[in-house]
Amino acid sequence: MTNDTLFSESADKPLADRLRPHKLSEVVGQPQLLSEKAPLMRMIKARKLSSFILWGPPGCGKTTIARILAQETNLHFEALSAVFSGVADLRKVFESAVGRRRIGQGTLLFVDEIHRFNKSQQDAFLPYVEDGTIILVGATTENPSFELNGALLSRCKVFVLNRLDDTALNQLTERAEKLYGRPLPVDEVGKTYLKELADGDGRYYLSLLETVMTYVEPNEIPDKSGLELLLQKRLPNYDKSGDNHYNLISALHKSLRGSDPDAALYWCARMITAGEDIKYILRRLTRFATEDVGLADPLALVQAHSAWDAYERLGSPEGDLAVAQLVVYLATAPKSIGVYRAWNKAVKVARETATKMPPMHILNAPTKLMSELGYNKGYQYDPDTKDGFSGQNYFPDGMPRTIFYEPFERGYEREIKKRLDYWNNLRQKKQKQ
User: Fold this and answer.
1) 327: which residues sit within 8 A by CB, 6+ positions away?
2) In this prediction, what percent of the chain has a pLDDT beyond 90?
3) Cα dihedral value 166, 167, 172, 174, nearest 10
4) Half-sphere CA count of 2, side-chain side, radius 13 A
5) Residue 278 in contact with residue 323, Cβ under 8 Å?
6) What pTM was estimated for this model as a whole?
7) Please, what is the angle between helix 188-198 and helix 166-180, to 10°?
8) Which of 228, 129, 144, 150 is nearest to 186 (CA)?
């Protein structure tokens, strides 16, 4: 049984601090970095650290790992948060590190939320990382590829940390029970619920355990509804401009492309319940209707416009159903990138031939002079021809005919392909006449 009292020193510390590991072997859930032959353990054995970035979700052990590495390698540990620090703070840290280096001591500088520093602040690290004055350990929850300068990223390894799985969370439960001297007063359903709430965040999970251990009587076993009342509900971990935002929209887009309406509905629901702007989702769905469905189902774009209009009129939550209907429609529609490919090809050729004039016969002649110069001469009005198709050339003179649009044999594009093949045959016949 713990001897903490209300006024003891350790009672003031959160459970996460009291259970903070002091050795790398005590860190849970990151065997890909901390097993015997993993990168960080190799650094420890070699007694030589290089600068690196720890990329992972909240509560997975980034700060703890940095502190332990400094201890294991006898480096002076300095910690900054990019949220609260500026260039002046960095300058002080660099000056102190230079002074320590003169007397033979190295510095490990841990920067939490390093992606929050702007370009000039990130550039300030470069000379001190390059000459070894500091070993930089940056922590970020955002994708370093997008958030860190290329110059800084090229000088640092990137190590990816995982969300804590059930095995890791069970280890934390055992440590908490040992500290408190009694088992966690919840049943198996309750334990599962606590893990679901934590969503792989070890720090938050320990906060939940602390609440349960503190406020639930040892002989009391609350059911799930009791735990919900005690703990309330955690808001989803979602940043509308962050990495998770792009991960979820990517998951939605690829589920639609893979014709899986159930997965698509799930990812759309994840975004909406997390507070995403539904107009952003509708923009992406409208784009999908043209880019991935295209003319395989021309009604896809009509459905997108209708769903958007319905949402504008109804708002949430009633309008959410219109979004869901659009998601299912797009997921189950035939897919074609025929128009998408055609447009990209056309843009490329247009840039290469930007100075070529249209052929004279398709230019209007609103004045007598223009008629005398040959504007509109020989133009055939297609609807007035026998076949409703003249087969004339509409590309610039001297430019070979180029096929941009190649419809697929699926959905409505199958019919378009038949029509294009028919016209192409007519064109060839007319050219031979």
Assistant:
1) 252, 256, 261, 264, 265, 268, 285
2) 41
3) 110
4) 21
5) yes
6) 0.63
7) 110
8) 228
